[in-house]
User: Fold this.
Amino acid sequence: MSSEYCICPPKLRSLASNGPTRVKHSSPVSHRKAVESIARYFGKELGYYQNMFHAASKPSDREFVPYEAYLFHDEAYNLKWENKKTEVVCLGACCFYKHYEGWSLHWVWFHPYFRKQGFLSRAWPEFRQRYGEFRLEEPLSLAMEQFVAKHSMA
Assistant:
């Protein structure tokens, strides 16, 4: 089967926290590439033809827009080696961009196996505190509309 039809979450050797990890232009390239990979899955699922995140973008680029992305992750175990923790699997990501009028949440995507498990709900209060009255970029998926209705933006 072609890899175009497979969803293979990015894996990293380690991430500092158990919660979502903030990724900025100064973060390790492996973290930025993991966000880019997840953004590609977001685009494929929703029919976007351009990638929503570019790992190589930097402040000196003419089109650079300040961003803060988040990787949602969990530890992976290698059962061959007595349940030894060997990697961190990136289950999803989201990305905020800063515009003149403030921050906006441009996209959120989770691997289908890890949707509706509370990852975004647990991070939401932190996002509200950090970004204040941020805007949600449209169109919103049905799942995101339901999420926003449950977690009032007021």
Remarks:
- Helices lie at 29-46, 119-131, 142-150.
